[in-house]
């Protein structure tokens, strides 16, 4: 049994043999089903120029989902500050919060959202990578604009996304809730969370340290099926281990035929040891372990599997078994 709230991250994987527009249509059914299941929040990630992930702006998906759901919180997880003017982020999410009071989150991250340098520069109008100081200034400016310029009433709930000590330190300094990308950098999780809690400075946004941890989660009726469903993402991870950023999201059948090297298998297995795959009993045990070890007040599940039905089934199984002793 899990005693912390459960949420979800939507990365909008574009499946081999389908079009991005098909993935986009699936996001509506996904949001509505998670709303009905009682998940606390659903966040959308920002990505660009990827063969495996749709380039759907989080603010647009948030607006669309908010209009077609009734209770679940919605927002960015995250919108990437270096790609946007702070005042525009404040206006966009401030407007959403005014239209959908107490349901909108503004999760802010740093990465470019792409592995392609030309795309990153295009997003930033030719500018190079953002420094720590520039990033911190952009986040602070966004928060300031929310209060001073937007003033539409109910404000979005701000979160800072991080996968390192540097991001955790910024969240602590600004007094923001921290969403940690355990599904990307599990080796950094505990040290970064310790850093955050030890240096947290209370703010009008957050009175005390507050942590959400994102965990890659694949749940099925059997361990074998969960392994089958996890196969496509393992192929993507194997490509990243070799420095190949342009890796499509294959079907489970294609993934089962992928010739993994021993090094790739070891890397994928090492990563998976920190995540949650398997039957409901196995997954709930792993999620409980992550919650206990990290002290997280909330867990966010990301389930990058092929086919909407299988992805929804994973979330359904977790939610059903999480509510029972």
From TrEMBL:
What GO molecular-function term can you cite, just one?
oxidoreductase activity, acting on paired donors, with incorporation or reduction of molecular oxygen
Limits of the Luciferase-like domain: 18-294
Q: What GO terms fall under cellular component here?
A: cytosol
What family, per the record? To bacterial alkanal monooxygenase alpha and beta chains.
PANTHER family given for it? LUCIFERASE-LIKE MONOOXYGENASE (PTHR30137)
Write down what this protein is called. Answer: Luciferase family oxidoreductase
């Amino acid at each position: 049994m899990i005693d912390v709230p459960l949420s979800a991250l939507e990365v909008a994987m574009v499946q081999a043999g389908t079009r991005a527009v098909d993935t986009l249509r699936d996001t509506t059914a996904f949001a509505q089903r998670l709303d009905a299941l009682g998940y606390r929040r659903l966040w959308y990630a920002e990505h660009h120029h990827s063969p495996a992930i749709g380039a759907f702006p989080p603010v647009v998906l948030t607006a669309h989902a908010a209009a077609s759901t009734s209770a679940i919180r919605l927002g960015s997880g995250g919108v990437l500050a270096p790609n946007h003017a702070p005042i525009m982020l404040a206006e966009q999410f401030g407007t959403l919060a005014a239209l959908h009071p107490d349901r909108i989150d503004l999760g802010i991250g740093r990465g470019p959202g792409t592995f392609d340098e030309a795309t990153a520069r295009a997003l930033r109008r030719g500018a190079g990578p953002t420094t720590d100081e520039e990033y911190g200034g952009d986040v602070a400016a966004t928060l300031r604009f929310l209060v001073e310029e937007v003033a539409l009433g109910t404000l979005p709930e701000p979160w800072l996304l991080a996968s390192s000590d540097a991001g955790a330190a910024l969240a602590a300094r600004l007094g923001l809730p921290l969403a940690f990308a355990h599904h990307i950098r599990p080796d950094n999780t505990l040290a970064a969370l310790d850093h955050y809690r030890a240096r947290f400075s209370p703010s009008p946004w957050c009175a005390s340290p507050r942590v959400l941890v994102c965990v890659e989660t694949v749940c099925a009726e059997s361990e074998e099926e969960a392994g089958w469903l996890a196969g496509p993402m393992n192929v993507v991870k194997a490509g990243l281990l070799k420095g190949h950023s342009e890796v499509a999201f294959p079907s489970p059948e294609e993934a089962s035929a992928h010739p993994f090297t021993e090094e790739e298998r070891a890397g994928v297995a090492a990563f998976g040891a920190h995540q949650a795959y398997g039957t409901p009993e196995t997954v709930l045990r792993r999620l409980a372990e992550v919650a206990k070890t990290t002290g997280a007040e909330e867990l966010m599940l990301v389930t990058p599997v092929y086919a909407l039905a299988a992805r929804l089934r994973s979330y359904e199984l977790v939610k059903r078994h999480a509510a029972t002793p």
